[in-house]
Amino acid sequence: MTRPPVVAASPNQAPWILGTSPRMTTENYVTSSPSYLVDSHCHLDYPELARDLAGVMARARNVGVGHMLTIGTKISAFPGVLAAAEQYPNVSCSVGIHPHDAATEAETDAAKLIELARHPKVVAFGETGPRLLL
Predict the structure, then answer these.
(1) DSSP state, 90?
(2) If DSSP codes are grouped into helix, strand and coil, which group holds residue 117?
(3) What is the pTM of this model?
(4) Phi and psi for 95 in degrees, rounded to 5?
(5) How many domains does the chain have?
(6) Residue 37: helix, strand or coil by DSSP?
(7) Domain that holds residue 83
(8) At residue 110, what are phi and psi to the nearest 5 degrees?
(9) Theoretical Cys-Cys bridge with 63: which of 4, 53, 92, 109, CB 3.0 to 4.6 Å?
């Protein structure tokens, strides 16, 4: 089997990687190939991608990407993350606060994150955790 080339929807995105989604179903499997690629970390709510979301999704599909996980970086921006996930059956999302944004985000506790994570499009917590610069 020939795999599609490794590409990204924008120059700033990490390369697509292989994987699966815990909530992947035949309804949101969008490629005809028995294997597909998953972008496990993208930011479809970021303005440079959101303004051409249909184009981003088409380019991803054309290179064999069958599922995308768009990552929440701020609770205040989560509605945009969720909206991107709700717009496409092959997009899931995470909820969280990037460590770089923690000081400027409103106080959020675990109960709030768990509440947001109950949405069926949410499959992960992230961006979370410490970042270490070596």
Answers:
(1) T
(2) helix
(3) 0.72
(4) -125, 135
(5) 1
(6) strand
(7) 35-125
(8) -60, -35
(9) 4
